[in-house]
Amino acid sequence: MYLADVFNINKQFTFYGVYHRNPINVAIHMICVPMILWTGLVMGTNLPSTMFPPIHVVFNDYLAFDLNWASVVAGSFLFYYYTLEPLAALMYTPEMALITLTALKFAHRPDHMAVAGALHAFAWIAQFVGHGFAEKRAPALMDNILGAAVLAPFFVHLELLYKLGYRPELHKRIDNEINKEVTRIRKMEGDKKRATAAGRQN
Fold this sequence. Notes:
Layout: H1 3-6, H2 9-18, H3 23-44, E1 56-58, E2 64-66, H4 69-84, H5 86-106, H6 112-135, H7 145-150, H8 152-163, H9 168-201
């Protein structure tokens, strides 16, 4: 992947969309992707953060902020989303803030690792089931760790925005690119199967 492609929403969303076309699989991801992000941030608070100043702010019983690797990663994700699609990123900012602040507060519970670990594993398993039984294609994680791990929360957000009528011209353009890519992949897979069958006959 070229560096320019990393900041190209058309290419990134097209790649993601190829692996997320089945409505059941899309619905699973809309539930599980935010769960994976939230639990990942909870578990990320356990990483050593001695290099950061001890900033700790409690807003209420459910929201808190700590300057650590989890909050830095969340901020980095959001910054990246702004480079891709600023308006959509702006609309996603409250959700990211809520996910981050609740995760940082939850991380102060003594059982946070056990709860987050169990939910994290469940969400990943559910997504693999969605890909295997609904999508019938391997998840994008196998081909593009950036699209699967970093961009998934934003793409789930964009999927919801598209359903609400956000930038129909962008949605149509990317959907056309997804259809072209699916056709190309299916042709490659068909050619490979025919070549394998011909080899066996020979």
